[in-house]
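Reopening this one. Same input as before:
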Amino acid sequence: MTSQVSSPAEHADEADEPGEALVGGQRRPPGEKEVRQLDRVIIRFAGDSGDGMQLTGDRFTSETASYGNDLSTLPNFPAEIRAPAGTLPGVSSFQVHFADHDILTPGDAPHVLVAMNPAALKANIDDVPRGGEIIVNTDEFAKRAMAKVGYETSPLEDGSLDGYSVHPVPLTTLTIEALKEFGLSRKEAERSKNMFALGLLSWMYHRPTEGTEKFLRAKFAKKPEIAEANVAAFRAGWNFGETTEDFAVSYEVAPADTAFPTGTYRNISGNLALSYGLIAASRQADLPLYLGSYPITPASDILHELSRHKNFGVRTFQAEDEIAGIGAALGAAFGGSLAVTTTSGPGVALKSETIGLAVSLELPLLVVDIQRGGPSTGLPTKTEQADLLQAMYGRNGEAPVPVVAPRTPADCFDAALDAARIALTYRTPVLLLSDGYLANGSEPWRIPDLDELPDLRTQFATGPNHTLDDGTEVFWPYKRDPQTLARPWAVPGTPGLEHRIGGIEKQDGSGNISYDPANHDLMVRTRQAKIDGIEVADLEVDDPDGARALVLGWGSTYGPITAAVRRIRREGGAVAQAHLRHLNPFPRNLGEVLGRYDKVVVPEMNLGQLATLIRARFLVDAHSYNQVNGMPFKAEQLAAALKEALDD
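Same output, byte for byte:
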């Protein structure tokens, strides 16, 4: 039988516990397990980096999306290709938060932790609230494995887990037993224990199974015996949950029917959404898409994805280094393509000279920076927002570049279209600042209709555009559109449109090399005016209560900030919220918005870069709240910090 929530409370994205209610006093048929209805759940899968936790989490997420829940995910994995097995630095985890209502973050703390070994338990136990459920693979809790992470006694026996609901499950043994008929070696059979765990969790939360079985058969199509072994392990995990006495309760989280506008949805990660956005932009611009790139975490997925879409006129080039990647992309822009280069912070540093060349040449070029922890190599698999000032000023000379930042994984699609619009309309390189949290995280995305996408078509120069004093008609490569200040885009090989290119300063209009001081001053100011004049939407402010304080964010802090603001308002506080997509130029009404409030707080995953810009540009005493630990903000922590800052 299924029990229902008797009176659903106002949903909070980051409530401390999942809401539930049981129908009491009713008899249940013998042998039938209790089913509880929840409004949301946070699950974290954790194990060695070779245990398949990312695949397990991804499959659970895909089935959850197909079921119709709102969701948000947080993959977290080591930077090493293969960290030492059984060690704390080698722990890989995947957290998924799903609900019957709209949510914004992957959740502060898991209600359920699946720990595949002692290292996974030790690395994650502090995040699990008392009373949370812990499913432990007891087969891995040998003395040597426990000693490797500092356990002198077994946490399963010494009482340290008494405050939790612990489910000891010999996952490895059960998986090997379930796969005896397949004739696999012990090592081969052990590899399927993540599918056993996935089957168990799928039973616990009534997730669909058909999609996962279809996925496994497709993934291992060339090794059908391995495919069927994984399917068997998955089914064995489901059956174990159904038959064991240790799991007396299963849970249901209803689809989020009212959380989304009508439409067709799919689960999507930030990097995948960005890839699709770039393809859509090239189609809407009627231009071939060219990616010149060098692999770097966490941007490499975009190169991998775009390489699959040659049928859409996409050409990808994996260069020998970052400089070659952007050089090839800039050449493609000169040749008439929608040109893109993808990288992370260290790569932006290497590309800076060529970005400056693109500023001088005034050619459309998208530079996608999937930010990660720095400086230098830093934290390749961890997230950060510390490239903002590099994006703004990280070039020699006065070289202004528009900066666009998506706020959620799905928003990466729209941000890519917006960045392409700016680059093509204003003939300029554009920096798009995503980050590791957005790139790897996922959420539902409504697939747009084609008629919702912007028209990005642009005209190439086709003939002379200037008449000399003697009446001769010539082509001037730097004669500008009076509205956008963009120069004409002349495709090489067009008769009569020959012109000089290069990094040396150009003469206004003619494009000839010029060392004239007055001309240089004019060109510098003109390029800046072009960026300042870019049309961007006014900043929208969420302020239902006429608050005196504003929380201002940018990029991936949107989810945690919004969840924190919801908490504050639910507790009776009045606070306004605004979130920036365009960081250069700022929205024209930003100064007026800031002037309305007595206090402005700027949470960032850096040491205050946007706050620095706000204070300098608008002379506003913006208060920073900063975190640089490689992880996104937690809503509860951020809400407490905001309340403290707003009460000062």
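So the earlier flakiness isn't reproducible anymore. For the record, The CA atoms of residues 285 and 457 lie 4 Å apart.
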